Structures are given as structure tokens and as C-alpha cells.
Amino acid sequence: MDAYCCTSLDFSLGYVGGRAICRLGTLCEESEFERTAMSLPYFSRFFFHSSKKNFSQETKKEETDEKKILTLVLAVTTATMLAGCGNTVKKDDSGEVVIEETDAAGDETAAGADTPEETSAAETEKEETDATDTVKEEAESAEPEKEPEPADWLEAHGITVTPQGDCTVQFYGYQDDASNPSGDFPAKVNAVISETTEGVDKGFKKVSMRFTIDKSDCTGTGCKWWNSAFDRYTGTSFEFDSSTTYTNPGDHVTKEGFVTIQNGDASYDVSITFDYEAQDLIIYSTITVTCPADYDGTVFQIGYASPELEEQNQQIDYAARLYTIDELPFYGDGYLYFTNSNE
Q1: What is the pLDDT of residue 44?
Q2: Using CB atoms within 10 A of its CB, is residue 217 exposed (0-12), middle (13-18) or buried (19+)?
Q3: pLDDT tens digits for 105-116?
Q4: Could you tell me the residue ranges of all domains in the chain?
Q5: Is the pTM of this model over 0.90?
Q6: DSSP state of 143
Q7: Do the beta carbons of residue 69 and residue 14 sit within 8 Å?
Q8: I need a surface site. Which of 97, 117, 190, 318 has the fewest CB within 10 A?
Q9: Measured between alpha carbons, how far is 155 from 192 in angstroms, rounded to an integer?
């Protein structure tokens, strides 16, 4: 027990009876104890000095005290180290020293870390922000919706196709001479379209519109009207001159013309024929279009005419170019439009 077993603080825990206590449980000489005690923390030195003072009076209890002191020193030192790591040191009901570990997560929370509620709220806010950013990115990257383009000129101009059959059209009436109007009247008209490939070159067809006009309600001795044909895809009129209006009475009039319709990269050669015949109160007016067999763009038109509209029509130079029907005076309310498909 007199042998030196430690010479530094690393192995010295305290002293008993003037001798240092090392971690191996042996006692060092007093001279060594002095050096060791002075190197320990304040509370350890205080304990050591108290033990040294009472050593001479407790010789009989030396061994028992040494064990108690050794145990207490070890407990105090260990408690100090563990308490520094965030653990809790306390006595239980029996007086024994008990060390309770503190949850690291709890320490972090106490130190200012987010609570579960705060974390959940932050995550929810981040998700909402991400979702908003995603919607904004999609809205910015998405192309604006384009309105569908009209299928053809008819649709673009809001023209309604009238089914074939019986209909009523407003005509201009006059007494003896067109310059002496007798008043407009509703003429009863029957409209029928037919197609045939007879009498035409291979690859072509004839599309004919026959208007049967009942002028029995005419307010005078004669009447005027306008009928013609045009291309549904471009609105281009098939008219080739300015003399297609008809004046009753008459016998039989046939007029022929030829136009080329350009629709994008496609072009169609169209021949148009007007045929007119009057029988008392019934007038037959037929328009025949000769066109390629795969062409379905013919639209027939019938409606009002008057000396004033005819005069405007005479001012148009049909030889200069082709015109769309909205550039001509015979267009607008009071006109009916027909196609072979009724569409």
C-alpha cells in the first residue's frame, strides 16, 4: 500500500489518510497526495483536505471510510462528467445516487430547435409555396389557348345555309318599267340542287341549282331578283360580268363564263352557266357550275335586286379581277344560300 501507483492527475481521484487514491484503488504517499490534491477541481480539494484533518482520529474506521470515500468520490466524479453531458443526477428513495439520461432531442428543443408543430407548419407552408410556384411555371410555360379557326368563308362570315326546298324570298316589283316600282313582295321559291358527270370531260361534274319562282303575288307587271354562285372556302364569286340580273318578261337567256378559283396551293377551273325561262306566272332560273369531280365548294345564292343595286353592280370592273361576294352589292340580309349537302 506504500508503493507509488500514480504521479499525475490523470490517474488520481483523491486521498485518504494523507495518501492519494488512484483509479486502481491503491493509496499513494502523502507527498504525492499534496501534488495530486492541488491539481484537482476545487470541490475535490475541499473533500481531500477534510479527510486529511480527521485521519488521525479515525484510525479504526480507516478501511471502512476508505471504501465509502472511494465510492463517493467515484460517484461524484462520474456524476459531474455525466451532468456535463446533459444528464441529470439525483438520489432515489433509498438515498442512492441515480443518473438519468436526458433525451438529446429534448435538449435541442430546449435550445431553440423547432417543435413538431412548427416543423409541420413549415413543411405545409413549403408544400403550398412549391405548389403555387408549380402552377405559376405551368401557366407561364403553357401556350395560350387559340380559338379554332373557321372551317371556311361561310362560317367566318356567319352565313347560314338554307335547306333545299320551298322558301320565300323578297323580290322587287315594278309596273310596266323597272324604273316604276310597284312595291316589294314575297316570292315563293322552290330550290333544288342536282349533280351529274354526263356531258362533261372526265374528272369533272356539273352541279346545277334550279329555282322555280312563283310570281303570282307580284304587285306589278314584272319583278327583279339576283341569283349567282360562289366558292364556300374563299367567298370568291363565280361572276364574270355585270349583266346577270333578270327582268321579266323574257323568253330564254343563256350566259356562260369561266373563272379559276385559287384556294391556297389548290386551284379549280370553274365554268358557270345561267339559264332563264318564263312561263306566265312561273319563272325557271337555273345556274350550272362545271367543276372538278372532287370539288365540293359551290354555294348558290338568291335574293333581292333593284335598279339602284344594279347601277352599283355596273360600276364594278369584273374583267380586272375576281371579287368576294361581300364586295358586291348583292350581299347581306334578304339573301338565301344553298349547298348540295345542305351544310
Answers
A1: 46
A2: middle
A3: 445 544 555 566
A4: 12-84, 153-338
A5: no
A6: P
A7: yes
A8: 117
A9: 22
